[in-house]
Design goal:
11 strands; globular; alpha/beta; seven-stranded mixed beta sheet
């Protein structure tokens, strides 16, 4: 199925920001430890989208360090630049350019990870259900699908926002960076448009900048789409510390699997 230009802006965002993506997102230690508790040595793992491969790399390293056995990693992404970085990091992984809304790898996995708000890039229910169906098709009967997104009360999100993140350090150059983020939110459609501009703090030189969009979903609507895809919700967490989900928690992490 062809969704035309709906994802083009988001792909372009990652192409423009790839050199600084991991700097902006930091160590991701809490997220990595969350997934490490769910993965067994030797598991077959699909990360969709795989991005720069940082999450899969850290998980495989943790497994190998603890047991001597790593993971069998497959990743898909639509950004050529992100895949290039991931292939350098994960030379033994199978990393493919593919659209998570419509793909067929002719393989089933122990665990499928859709990390770090990626599901929110999908612009309508049709795209979400198509993605969930692809995940279901690639999940072993006893496997798990983990989908992680931030959550917020959709009625409280400001129509316009501007802020900054200070103290970022580029490990390649040791330069201090500052990220300026601005956003606009359309409450009627739950669409959030975000612009990132990354500057060198000392010189104020613009290093990278781009825009992306998300469609936010409340917990009830997302649960209904999972049900429509004939998946069962096995667990639901509100944080990487595995706290039970509630509307007061910062994240919505759903562990689903084929209906049994």
């Amino acid at each position: 199925m062809n969704w035309g230009k709906r994802m083009d802006e988001n792909i372009a965002f990652y192409e423009h920001i790839v050199d600084y993506y991991d700097v902006i997102h930091g160590s991701r230690n809490e997220e990595i430890q969350f997934y490490a508790q769910m993965i067994n040595p030797g598991d077959t793992v699909l990360e969709a989208p795989v991005g720069t491969g940082m999450l899969s790399l850290k998980l495989s390293q943790l497994c190998k360090s603890a047991t001597g056995m790593g993971l069998s990693i497959t990743g898909i992404d639509l950004s050529d630049s992100m895949l290039e970085v991931a292939r350098d990091r994960l030379p033994d992984a199978s990393l493919l350019k593919a659209d998570m809304r419509s793909f067929d790898l002719s393989e089933k996995f122990d665990i499928i990870i859709c990390p770090l708000n990626s599901i929110l890039h999908l612009r309508c229910d049709e795209e979400v259900v198509s993605t969930l169906n692809c995940f279901k098709h690639h999940c072993k009967p006893t496997g798990r699908i983990v989908i992680d997104s931030f959550q917020s009360d959709l009625e409280l999100i400001p129509k316009a926002y501007k802020g900054s993140i200070d103290g970022l350090i580029d490990p390649k150059t040791n330069r201090e960076l500052i990220l300026v983020e601005s956003s606009t939110y359309r409450r009627k459609t739950a669409h959030l448009k975000v612009e990132w501009q990354l500057y060198e703090k000392k010189t104020k030189n613009l290093l990278a900048g781009s825009k992306y969009s998300q469609r936010l979903m409340n917990s009830c609507d997302f649960a209904n789409l999972i049900h429509d895809s004939e998946l069962a919700i096995l667990e639901k967490f509100g944080s990487y510390e595995r706290e039970p989900y509630s509307r007061a928690q910062p994240r919505q992490i759903i562990v689903a699997g084929p209906e049994r």
